[in-house]
Description:
The structure holds 2 protein chains of 2 kinds.
Chain A: H1 2-34, H2 41-78, H3 98-113, H4 116-128, H5 135-159, H6 163-180, H7 183-195, H8 201-215, H9 221-224, H10 228-258
Helix pairs in contact in A: 1-2, 2-8, 3-5, 3-8, 4-5, 5-8, 5-10, 6-10, 7-10
Chain B: H1 2-32, H2 40-79, H3 82-98, H4 101-116, H5 124-155, H6 159-173, H7 179-191, H8 197-211, H9 217-220, H10 224-242
Amino acid sequence: MIGWLHQFLDALLETGRDVLPIAAIIIGFQLLVIRKPLVHPGKTLLGFFNVLIGITFFLDGLKIALFPLGELMATQLTAPAFLNIPDSTAAIDWRNYGWVYLFGACIGFATTLAEPSLLAVAIKAEEISGKAISAWGLRLAVSLGVAFGIALGTFRIVTGTELYYYIVVGYIVVVVQTLFAPKLIIGLAYDSGGVTTSTVTVPLVTALGLGLASTVPGRNPLLDGFGLVAFASLFPIITVLGYAQLAEWLGRKRNSNHT
Amino acid sequence: MFRNNRLIGLIIGSCLDLAPILGVVLIFQLAVIRQPIPNVADLIIGSLFVVLGLTFFMLGLEQSLFPVGESMANAFARKGSVFWLLLFAFCLGFGTTIAEPALIAVTAKAADIAGGAHLITDNEAAKTAYALGLRLTVAASVGVAIVIGVLRILMGWPLHYFIIAGYLAVTAMTPFAPAEIIGIAYDSGGVTTSTITVPLVTALGIGLANSIKGRNPITDGFGLIAFASLTPMIFVMAFGMMA
């Protein structure tokens, strides 16, 4: 019990340190530049407090329940004994790591659905688009993108191919899609790349990458262990643009059937 | 009564958000790895905390972060001073990033790598200086990103030109950057945008696009986060080439 309390206070302090500069900037500009009092000071303060408490509980809960288990699973799944790899010096066959890709995809999908930043952006998008973009549709599209990105990223670590090539190809796909996607979605799609990877996804995914890079023979955890976060921020852009193109295409097809 | 319904709705939503993670973890643990769950009590308490945390966060989001971001955007638009708006944008980007725990962790790791690869002297002082330099670099890059993003909304320039130019810069710089820094540079784009920054910056962008004539919040309001995840890659690679 004392242990939890201690952990909780630590988390509160950490979150507080994160919030403090933001609060200082907002209050400073509000008083010195805008020179008007906040409209609802009490409600705003309460809201900030709620955000602070919320993030603290959220992170603490993850630290108690999910991170240890997730990290344990990442090491168990990447252990040569589990994957039936007889000899660590044998040539690496990427097909032996099937469970790792599947786990990466599933955990990427599930953690992204619970990512608070994505939730915030999805709510705003639904609100200002007059429900043309559904919050759930957007979250599903982003989560699918992260799932694919992590699976491909683990594949890259196993095969030891250059991160650079994947990223460049991803960029080319994004640029080509941008030319054809509905203009409405472009800003939102680019933004959804950045919001996927914050509090939930990064620790689990980093553990998976580092675990994998240290068990696969010939990989250096420091060099090959990174890059999963980059994949997880690139592929959602592609899936969100794709989701918008698909929605537009279906809508057009339905319209042409009617007339 | 209405308030209570809303709270219950939020709690149910949070449970739904958490369910997939629990599902994946349980299924893999029991069916694939075939090990019992260690510390069931911790798992239950932790899950309760997560649900509680998400609920409070959502509540606070609509009470403070969204309205504050939007009211500040409106106030700046009425004031009409581009200088103060851009200074605010820079401070917001820099201030929220410099204290970001994920960034502190990543820069410390990067300093270890740079020390191990003999890019810098392999001792504590050099590593601390390197990590701090990297942190300042990333924070400044996010500040610059928000400034460019706000300027773009003011002028109504199309977003994709900037993104394509950014991609070209990343692609062109990668072959010349030290191999050790590339993975970190690419990942640093993703870790900069924290859970508090995102709602605030999103509300700022949408608020600005709403209060400026001729801007459409949905096409012009988004894009700030995209800049904030692109510029760190460029700045960190530049930092790696110079250090």
